[in-house]
Input
Amino acid sequence: MLNVIIFGAPGTGKGTQSQNIIEKYQLVHLSTGDILREEIKNGSPVGLAAKKYIDDGLLVPDSVIFDLLFDRTSKNTNSKGFIFDGFPRNNVQAEILDEKLAEMQTPISLVLYLDVTEEELFKRILLRAQISGRADDTAEVIKKRIEVYTQQTQPLLDYYRQQGKLIPIAGMGTIEEVFALIEKEIDGYLGK
Ligand code: AP5
Ligand code: MG
Output
């Protein structure tokens, strides 16, 4: 299996590039943000509990995330692999993910780190805000999301660097240019 983590701050293009990756490599896309927004839309108890964290730009409790995510990994064991988008977001999540994948005998292959300046993130998210309808796409909440990313998620770069899996991707180009860099890395990994 090919298991990819697409890593980066809010608005770096994780969701956008995941779409390109799943089309070309036929992976199962697991975006914890998308899954949570779906739960909110459906009015489920999990969604209701998660909403207040998301609207404030804070991380939803780990236990909620694990339940939602591992339910989906266990249902897709015949897939060609997974792309994890927006997960893991802290040390506990990274360690539990490694444990789960070890049980499934299919470790993380690559961590693609989309590197984009903070100024560009604001620009991209505020532009998206005009159409997204996402309650967390306001200037104030974006600031909070970036702060939470810097404090809790960014330290994972070291975790994956130590595992020899971290691949920085220059994320400032066009969507097509960034995807070309990603393809080069995945094809290199696959020996193509
Ligand atoms: P989540 O949904 O993961 O949001 P995020 O990390 O803040 O990132 P975004 O989805 O906003 O951005 P993206 O990187 O996907 O960029 P996109 O492709 O859309 O999480 C939301 C919330 O859910 C969290 O705050 C938290 O509360 C909760 N949550 C989620 N996962 C969790 C977890 N594991 N644990 C705890 N809580 C969790 O691109 C952005 C825009 O830019 C788009 O309009 C796009 O078209 C455009 N764009 C993309 N690439 C380019 C480019 N190269 N050039 C120009 N524009 C571009
Ligand atoms: Mg996203």
User: Anything to note?
Assistant: The first strand starts at residue 4 and ends at 7. The beta strands are 4-7, 28-31, 82-85, 110-115, 166-170. The domain at 2-180 is CATH 3.40.50.300 (Rossmann fold). The pocket of magnesium ion (ligand 2) is lined by residues 14-15, 31, 33, 86 (CB under 6 Å).
